[in-house]
Amino acid sequence: MPNLLDYTQPELRDLMQSWDQPAYRGDQLYSWLHKDLATNPEQMTNLPKALRTRLAAETTLNPLQLVVQVDSKDRLTRKALFRLADGNTIEVVLMLYNQRRTVCISTQVGCGMGCTFCATAQGGLRRNLSAGEIIAQVHWFERWLRQEGGKADGLRVERPSRISNVVVMGMGEPLANYEPLFKALRAITDPDNFALSARSITVSTVGLVPMIDRMADEDLPVGLAVSLHAASNRLRGKLVPINRTYPVESLIAACHRYQQKTRRRITFEYALMRGINDSIEQAQQLADLLVGLRSHVNLIPLNPIPDSPYQPTSPEDAASFQQVLQAAGVPATMRLRRGIEINAGCGQLRQAMQQSDVIPLLTEP
Ligand code: SAH
Fold it and tell me: Would the pTM of this model clear 0.85, i.e. be above it?
């Protein structure tokens, strides 16, 4: 069944005309979907009854079925696992830090990039998500935040509220699923409907250089985060195999071009792995690489995953690494390890569910 969230507003107008409806029905439908976040055609009270019945019979509005959700002990993070129409599952996370309500969304089932420290990479790429499947992840948590009821429900959030930020840092490589991703980003930034600002969206990439250039030309100034993890080609080629296609110099050059066009500060993600990429020399090398770029380094203590040789850096070594960057004038922050207890590392809840060794703390009634 077609997922109505996959359609742009002009596409919905065309669909309605092909159903012998006036085109403006497409506009009404679009607004029900993207402004009111309707999940059932029966809610669409300004559409004729017969049309609502046909929509219910022939289309779907909500491609996500909640499997399980788990909250962190501090009640600031909720991770949800959803089943898609074809039975595949994806992860979505809501985070309530720094006065923000940030949702972290997935763009693929699995991932084909093969980063050696990443849980999602272990199963390879299953398939791309459609634009509607990406949009639905944002809508799901937005609907939950807008609701006034359910106060017994665990997270610490002033309700009703709205999503303030979206980070595309869940499962998959977003720039390897470029068109559906941008279709989704255009829908959630549509000023007449969902109306999130492009400035509050960040897309994280492993470093697909041609796609970074394409993104720079989009006229949608979303933030760019680059998963760097190493400053030398020798090491990065081992951790992040795509580096053999797009080496560090070409990646940093693309970041300069992105910054020139969008004027936005660029985030570099760097997962600190003990004895692998966490020495003082490597910190200096990283600082040298970022000279002249307005950047910010996000240091992440590695989340250890099963069957992986990598271990997190000690807190002392992590602090020294951070100091070297800061002394060199590169802003660097240490990401807190809050998500760990709920398997918030990329792909980890899905993996744990498959191994069925996670105990859900909270499930939808
Ligand atoms: N494919 C995209 C986005 C998804 S991963 C990208 O590579 O940026 C989101 C971030 O989590 C990336 O920086 C990724 O390298 C990092 N990551 C993956 N596995 C991790 C682990 N075990 N510990 C810490 N960070 C990890």
Answer: yes
